[in-house]
Amino acid sequence: MKVAAANLQHPLIRPVVIDARDGFSPDEIAVMVVITSPALRALRAQRGVARAQLLQAGLLPNPQLSASFDRVDARGDPTLVNGDSLGVSWDVTALLAHGDVKAAARATADALDLSIAWQEWQASQEARMRAFRLWSLEQRLPWARDVESDRAEALEETRRAVQQRLSPAPDLTPANDAWRRAQADRLALEQQILVDRSALNLALGQPVDEPLQLHLDDGFPALPENALAQALDGLPTRRLDLAALKLGYASQEATLRAAVKAQFPRLDVSLSRARDTSDVHTHSIGVTLDLPLFDRGQGQIAVARATRQQLFEEYVARVAEARSEVGQIIAQITATRAELGAIDATLPALEQLAASFARALAGHSVTPAAYRDARDTLATRRIEQSQLQQSLLELEVGLETVTGQPLLNRRVAAASP
């Protein structure tokens, strides 16, 4: 695995050095998925079929050899001899479309290579996104447990107060609802962690319950002012699926040319040597020409032309879709970063408030309930911050995915618990 990852040759995925001593980074997991994924390995097996088809397209038809023997009946003229003939023929018109047929097969094989590379890129990016999500969920889980614990304590205090007739019984309902929501949030986090870890292990070809340790050193840089223009510049070239569609169009163009050239009537040229029963030797050259009275290849030409137009329209639609998707993701990144900045600005004050309440509680200046409320507010805001960080990471991985362009100099700090 380490050797394959360090020597990976891919148009979009860069080789990495895998070091599992401190866990796996999202980039390491992305490369490992490309190498080990059973689904991708089965997909890459299609390359052998395409290369075999390319080999077949480069072969010319075999010549045909014919021979005959005429034996003289013994009761016939004794001056007659046995006759024989030997001839060879070949379809000359195969040369007309040979170059186009081979070009079509080569373009198809190259398009398949790009299509497989694009699916590998998609799979690697999905694995990176899951790794970022899993890391973020694991960061939030301790805070979710703290919130659940605080609300469980609040519920127990309310229950005791009701039993001692210090609080009315209806106070139990909101306290119980708050605790159940916190418990449901914690259970949902644990379930999502299990789902994402199982999905990553499946992509890596590992048992679903195999422990997977992650570490995150880097994040993503801030987008430049002209991020949209940079992302759209050269998009059809960077997107391997669009490049594969262009090669598919080129393959169909060559197929159409081959179909047009196939309209030329089939021409077989033959050479033969013969000896008849009178012992007369002859050498002859023959030509066989099809008469295109009914079938002139109109159907094949129409199919090839319609398929070419379909590929063109699909390419135009995919380019427009990709450009629109890039614009939407960049807009979402901008909005998410603004929202995250607003939450980041409130955290220092909440942290100071929680710390002051902790000191006041030690001096018996505030009630435990007030301190719990301050802690609960801080933990809830940290959870919101982590959720936005996760959304931002997923959006930026999505931007990489749709543009086919990895972002450089990633750097984001983990939030402190």
Automatic annotation (TrEMBL):
Entry similarity comment: Belongs to the outer membrane factor (OMF) (TC 1.B.17) family.
Name assigned to this protein: TolC family protein
Lineage, top ranks: Bacteria, Pseudomonadati, Verrucomicrobiota, Opitutia, Opitutales
Entries under Gene3D superfamilies matching the protein: Outer membrane efflux proteins (OEP)
Biological source species: Horticoccus luteus
An annotated Gene Ontology molecular function: efflux transmembrane transporter activity
InterPro entries hit by this protein: MdtP/NodT-like, OMP_efflux
